[in-house]
């Protein structure tokens, strides 16, 4: 016997194989009390129910007579793929510790790898927390930046030449240009809530990083960084302590080790599962890593999935927005 909601992948596959169960699950997360709201005129299902058109699996609005399905205003909208596929892909995405590739999703659900890639890209958007508020920082916040991407010194000679030629003409080539293909990420980890924020930043200049930090951490918090120049003058707003990485990595409570762990996990996943990630897509991969990290304690696979599902409303990413190309058929 299944309990009310599944807690393992096997149970989830069985549970969501029923289309009506999928519709109910999404409706419950999307609308208050699972009661459908017309996307056109925003009439809620009150005394007079929206018509349920059983054959089309859609509602017809009582007021404006328009039809709508549970997929409207979700990442699943306009997709011919069944809700079952979407939900199982979401389950795997949030519960596979090391991430999941489009090939694995394709094998598990029977869809094409290209479709699976698109499914995953859209689902990553679900995992992004739009307005997460500031980190309270009661027990301090670790701050650190890192770079993702391969280094030219490891590239084949011909690729390196091609890259250098494409970056700048030789006469204006500078030391900095050698790093333009690497993408910078800034991370902040609240030690009390164990919550992490990480995002791609255009560069690691002082003004760029400090703007992010001031917008993310409550003033007056203890903060811990290394001695990078970008972090100087934060003392005006925070109790700032630094650790000199050329001498030691931990000085009592002054360290950025928890964040370093997150970096190594993220980099391992990027290398192992995803092989290659365009800088353009990196922000979404980060959202995925951050979601799993922030929701690892106090959740089981079932509740973690429910949490992700509760974030589906109003999030949609079209193929055009994702790739800048036309959407292929059947995706
Ligand atoms: Zn309506």
CATH architecture grouping of the largest domain: 2-Layer Sandwich
First-to-last CA distance:
34 Å
* SSE order, one letter for each helix or strand: HHEEEHHHEHEEHEEHHHH
- The name of the CATH topology of the largest domain is Nucleotidyltransferase, domain 5
Number of beta strands: 8
Return the structural class: alpha/beta
Tell me the strand percentage band: 5-15%
- Order of strands, main sheet, comes to 6-5-4-7-8
Point out poorly predicted stretches.
170-178
Oligomer type: single chain
CATH class category label of the largest domain: Alpha Beta
Q: How does the overall form come out from the CA principal axes?
A: globular
Instruction: Please state the average pLDDT score.
Output: 84
Number of domains: 2
Tally of contiguous helical segments: 11
Characterise this structure:
By secondary structure, the protein is of the alpha/beta class. The chain folds into two domains: 9-123 and 312-323, no CATH class; 141-277, Nucleotidyltransferase, domain 5. The protein has eleven helices and eight strands. It has a five-stranded mixed beta sheet with strand order 6-5-4-7-8, sandwiched between helices. It has a three-stranded antiparallel beta sheet with strand order 1-2-3, with no helix packed on it. The longest helix has 16 residues, at 257-272. Bound molecules: zinc ion (ZN). Zinc ion (ZN) is lined by residues 38, 40-41, 43, 61, 63-64, 66.
């Amino acid at each position: 016997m299944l309990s009310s909601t599944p807690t393992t992948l096997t149970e989830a596959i069985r549970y969501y194989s029923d289309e009506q169960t999928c519709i109910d699950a999404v409706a419950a997360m999307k609308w208050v009390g699972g009661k459908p709201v017309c996307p056109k005129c925003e009439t809620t299902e009150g005394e007079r129910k929206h018509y349920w058109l059983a054959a089309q699996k859609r509602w017809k609005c009582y007021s404006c007579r328009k039809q709508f399905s549970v997929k409207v205003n979700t990442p699943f909208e306009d997709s011919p793929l069944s809700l079952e596929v979407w939900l199982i892909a979401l389950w795997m995405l949030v519960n596979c510790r090391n991430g999941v590739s489009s090939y694995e999703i394709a094998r598990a659900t029977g869809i094409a790898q290209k479709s699976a890639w698109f499914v995953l890209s859209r689902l990553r958007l679900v995992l992004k927390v739009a307005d997460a508020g500031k980190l309270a920082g009661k027990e301090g916040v670790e701050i650190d930046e890192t770079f993702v991407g391969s280094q030219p010194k490891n590239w084949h000679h011909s690729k390196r030449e091609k890259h250098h030629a494409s970056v700048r003409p030789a006469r204006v080539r500078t030391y900095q240009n050698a790093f333009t293909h690497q993408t910078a990420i800034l991370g902040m980890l609240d030690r009390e809530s164990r919550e992490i924020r990480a995002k791609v930043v255009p560069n690691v200049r002082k003004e760029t990083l400090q703007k992010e930090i001031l917008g993310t951490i409550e003033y007056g918090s203890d903060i811990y960084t290394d001695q990078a120049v970008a972090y100087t003058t934060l003392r005006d707003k925070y109790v700032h302590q630094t650790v000199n990485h050329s001498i030691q990595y931990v000085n009592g409570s002054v360290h950025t080790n928890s964040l370093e762990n997150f970096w190594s996990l993220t980099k391992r996943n990027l290398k192992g599962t995803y092989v290659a990630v365009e800088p353009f897509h990196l922000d979404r991969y980060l959202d995925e890593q951050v979601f799993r990290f922030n929701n690892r304690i106090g959740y089981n696979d079932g509740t973690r999935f429910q949490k992700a599902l509760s974030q589906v409303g109003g999030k949609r990413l079209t193929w055009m927005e994702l790739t800048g190309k036309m959407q292929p058929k059947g995706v």
